Amino acid sequence: MIRKTGLLGGTFDPIHYGHLALAEAAGKLCDLSEIVLIPAAVPPHKQHRVITDFSHRFAMLTAGVEAYPDLHVSSIEQLLPKPSYTIDTLEYLKLHSVGEVEFYFITGADSFFDIQSWKRYRNVLQTCNFIVFTRNGNKNKKLHTLLGQLEYNKNDTAWYNKKNNKFIYTPVHSLPVVSSSDIRKRLARNKVVNNLIPQKVREYIARHELYQDCKYSGTTLFRQTSAL
After folding, report:
1. Domain assignment present for 133
2. How far apart are the first and last CA of the chain?
3. Does residue 191 share a domain with residue 142?
4. pLDDT (tens digit, 9 = 90+) per residue, 74-124?
5. Which of 88, 79, 165 minimizes the C-alpha distance to 120?
6. CB-CB contact of 139 with 109 (8 Å)
7. Which site from 9, 31, 53, 80 is most exposed, i.e. has the minimal number of CB atoms within 10 Å?
8. Other beta carbons less than 10 A from residue 197's beta carbon
9. Which contacts (CB < 8 Å, 24+ apart) does range 89-98 have?
10. Is 21 exposed, middle or buried (0-12, 13-18, 19+ CB in 10 A)?
11. Radius of gyration of the chain measured on its C-alpha atoms
12. Domain check: are 31 and 120 in the same one?
């Protein structure tokens, strides 16, 4: 029997209810057996920005998914070459997975719009299916145009590429409007974040005094980080 595994990557700095809602919605949409959250060690698009140490982000993720039995956390990108490219992670997982596995990469439309700039993006599309969430019709039209350019054709419930035998699902879903950058700003200003992140994540942040020395300037957040 083929195991259907969802993959949700990101910086997760920190994890929040938006991430968890995205994972849950993807799991229900495609009847996934499990969903693996993969924190990036060194995100290619954030190489010149300071991010919280991997050990902290991994620990917060682990605490954040405790109440979700179908969600798991992988530290694989800490072991792979840096920066963390999606294709490297996919190929490693495909090579080392036990039994037959079909991967479903979970992302938002804003990220998928840049797919052609990803390292070996055609290999990425050949390796896994995608679940691409959109929030409104306008983005859906833009996404459908891109999918046509990538040689995907509309199927009954998804888009299908007969060359690589992969599907891309494009659900329009009302997900919580929350971002990690906003949470960091709130924490730096001692504002309440109870409705944005799980309690155990809040407790971890308080225990390790994360995000307290943030200095907000314009649209970029700079901070000092320390290892566990």
Report:
1. yes
2. 40
3. no
4. 999 999 989 989 999 999 999 999 889 999 999 999 899 999 999 999 999
5. 88
6. yes
7. 31
8. 26
9. 89/7, 89/9, 89/38, 90/7, 90/124, 90/127, 90/128, 91/123, 91/127, 93/7, 94/127, 97/5
10. middle
11. 18
12. yes
Residue pLDDT, tens place only, 6-49:
999 999 999 999 999 999 999 999 999 999 999 999 887 665 67
β-sheet bridge partners, residue 221: 216
Q: How far is the C-alpha of 152 from the C-alpha of 189, rounded, in Å?
A: 46
Structure tokens at 65: 């998914």
Boundaries of domain holding 11: 3-169
CATH number, residue 130: 3.40.50.620
Q: Which two tokens stand for residue 1?
A: 């029997």
Cα(142)–Cα(145) distance, integer angstroms: 5
What does the pLDDT look like over 124-181, one tens digit per residue?
Answer: 999 999 999 987 655 688 899 999 999 999 998 899 999 999 999 999 877 777 899 9
Query: Do 190 and 147 belong together in one domain?
Result: no
Tell me whether residue 175 is in a domain.
Answer: no
Q: Are residues 24 and 120 in the same domain?
A: yes
**Secondary structure, 3-state, 162-173:** CCCCEEEECCEC
Instruction: Mark which of 147, 169, 191 sits at the end of a domain.
Output: 169
Do 55 and 136 lie in one domain? The reply is yes
Task: Give the span between the Cα atoms of 37 and 48, in whole angstroms.
Answer: 23
Question: In this structure, are 190 and 158 located in the same domain?
Answer: no
| Structural tokens at position 137 | 């019709």
